[in-house]
Amino acid sequence: MSFKVLFLGEIVGRAGIGAIKNGLKALKDKTGADFVIANAEGTTNGFGLGKAHSMQLSHLGINLLTGGEKLFYKQDMVEFFPKCSYVLRPANYPIKAPGKGYKIVEINNKKVAIINLLGSSGFTRLSVTNPLTFSDMLLNKLKDEADIVLIQFHCATTAECATLAHYLKDRVAAVIGTHSKVLTADSQIIGKCAFISDNGRCGSALSVGGFNPEYEIKKLMSAIPDRSHESWEDCELQGVLVTISEEGVAEDIVPIKEKVKVERPEVTK
Q1: Which InterPro entries does the record associate with it (predicted)?
Q2: Nearest 5 degrees, angle CA 248-CA 253-CA 258?
């Protein structure tokens, strides 16, 4: 029997949390999703994931959270990682990094390994193991432990994401890209693998990656660095719904753009 996995795009700030809170249950009912994965590295003020927000998102119905280069920005989450079973850091991080980069779960009586990887292009602050060679190593390790493998790939270039999908097209059921927070138009089945180079964001659709355009324009016009401010306009849940056969073959990948009403909280003086 086939099953469905909902891969949600990066959750951006309080507006993203509000979209999850107000829209996820209805979206799960509408799509029949059996399991939900979301990138959460932009949840806490748009930069990083705090411990309290990780617990809140888990409570709201997200089965597994992932992240990339911003995942360790909040110290309370770094300290929580050794005890946290529902957040994955990149598996190809240095060996001393806290937490785990993959997890085996059971979906419809199948053992499904979910791996989170970070790309090697564009992240100058970090040095990670090559995602292709690391995938070879980890897949070999998991061959007797998991029936099906899904990969969430946080990478800065669409080309690197597509390269990994083509490389693993007959060995994994999905390679889903994150990072740019823009739902790309390249969702497809490559071999046995569902692929999209970026599955978008959860939060404001009328924005610059979930952030208020006014402040992003100001930064570009002045060259003065400043923090980004979340936007609350036209909130959506974005992502893809992937259907996978019991043999571990991707049958379908459907882009998701679900509008959700989210009210901006009043500012108290």
Answers
A1: Metallo-depent_PP-like (IPR029052), YmdB-like (IPR005235)
A2: 135
The count of domains in the chain is: 1
Question: What pTM does this model have?
Answer: 0.96
* Tokens representing residue 121 in the block: 């292009």
| Residues in Cβ contact with 213 at an 8 Å cutoff, skipping those fewer than 6 apart | 207, 231
Residues 6+ apart with CB under 8 A from 54: 40, 43, 65, 77, 80, 84, 86, 87
In tens, the pLDDT along 71-110 reads 999 999 999 999 999 999 999 999 999 999 999 999 999 9
- Is position 16 within any domain? yes
**Does residue 269 lie in a domain region?**
no
Q: How far apart are CA 129 and CA 120, in angstroms?
A: 8
Classify residue 87: in a domain, yes or no. yes
CATH number at residue 117: 3.60.21.10
Q: In whole angstroms, give the CA distance from residue 147 to residue 160.
A: 26
What does the pLDDT look like over 224-254, one tens digit per residue? 989 899 999 999 999 999 999 999 999 999 9
What does the DSSP assignment read for 136-188?
HHHHHHHTTT-SEEEEEEE-S-HHHHHHHHHHTTTT-SEEEEESS-SB-S--E
CA 140 to chain centre: 24
Which residues have C-beta within 8 Å of that of residue 75, sequence separation ≥ 6?
none
